[in-house]
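Thread amino acids onto this structure.
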């Protein structure tokens, strides 16, 4: 019997495969475009942010001197950072939770076997086609204290008008409302796809066992939908933390800083009103990056175990 080479035997024993130079070159060629895009749009900006955060800058924003961790010390000593993080957390909760709840309820309602239900599915998915700028301008009209739709509705039921975007108590929830509407179409589309993926045989078996209505929704639909809900939770949280366009158009961080989230505070330090404090803004960007990583890791660590992967 012919003996096999020792190297080949060890390779198979350890579960590893040896690839030829041609296979390696082919794999590298396929990966090159993606690596190039990641380098240009992710790795280089991240490295540049680290570099800028460790350097002070001149009036033109150019790195002037190495300052080490002084930018981070200044940032963490400022109460504005804590306030911005609290506002960001509040905005995230006000955006993500209603978006998932409304999206789930609408997606469930759209599964009803009603004639012409496809038209309603299309109409309820239309917010997904709007850009952030377009949706923000629309809601700016809705929130207008003089001719806005919302205050007109309040007038019909004999209630006083509300300064939706000019009152610090209502500004952040108002911007969150616009964000919920903007994200709602995407949530409905993804959740509808998740509901369509639940096998009909499971429902048939549940009906034979006597399950109906809310019992079926609680014991079958929602558990089978948890992978989709978890995906939307992670994506929606990241989107909410990084939200900028609607805040800039609707309130510009006001009134009195009531809607100045961490991203908008970064913008104020780096670009607004002729500011060029790129070092401090880069430190804020790294803090924002760390927050996104930590929040995502916590979601995977504590919530993914509750996801039902069939």
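Threaded sequence (310 positions):
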């Amino acid at each position: 019997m012919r003996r096999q080479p020792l190297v080949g035997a060890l390779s198979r024993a350890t579960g590893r495969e040896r690839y030829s130079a041609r296979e390696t070159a082919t794999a590298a060629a396929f990966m090159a475009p993606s690596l190039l895009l990641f380098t240009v749009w992710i790795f280089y900006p991240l490295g540049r942010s680290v570099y800028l955060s460790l350097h002070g800058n001149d009036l033109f924003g150019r790195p002037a001197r190495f300052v080490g961790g002084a930018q981070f010390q200044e940032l963490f000593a400022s109460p504005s950072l804590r306030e911005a993080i609290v506002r960001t957390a509040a905005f995230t909760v006000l955006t993500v939770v209603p978006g998932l709840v409304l999206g789930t309820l609408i997606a469930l309602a759209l599964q009803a076997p009603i004639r012409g239900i496809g038209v309603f599915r299309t109409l309820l998915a239309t917010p997904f086609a709007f850009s952030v700028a377009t949706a923000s301008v629309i809601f700016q009209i809705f929130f207008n204290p003089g001719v806005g739709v919302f205050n007109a509705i309040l007038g019909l039921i004999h209630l006083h008008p509300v300064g939706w975007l000019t009152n610090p108590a209502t500004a952040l929830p108002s911007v969150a409302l616009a964000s919920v509407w903007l994200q709602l179409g995407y949530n409905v589309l993804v959740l509808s796809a998740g509901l369509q993926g639940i096998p009909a045989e499971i429902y048939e078996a549940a009906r034979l066992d006597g399950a109906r209505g809310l019992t079926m929704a609680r014991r079958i639909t929602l558990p089978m939908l948890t992978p989709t809900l978890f995906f939307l939770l992670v994506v929606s949280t990241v989107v909410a933390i990084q939200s900028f366009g609607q805040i800039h158009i609707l309130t510009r961080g006001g009134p009195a800083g009531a809607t100045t989230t961490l991203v908008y505070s970064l913008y104020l330090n780096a670009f607004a009103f002729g500011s060029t404090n790129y070092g401090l803004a880069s430190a804020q960007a790294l803090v924002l990056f760390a927050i996104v990583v930590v929040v995502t890791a916590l979601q995977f660590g504590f919530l993914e175990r509750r996801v039902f992967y069939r």
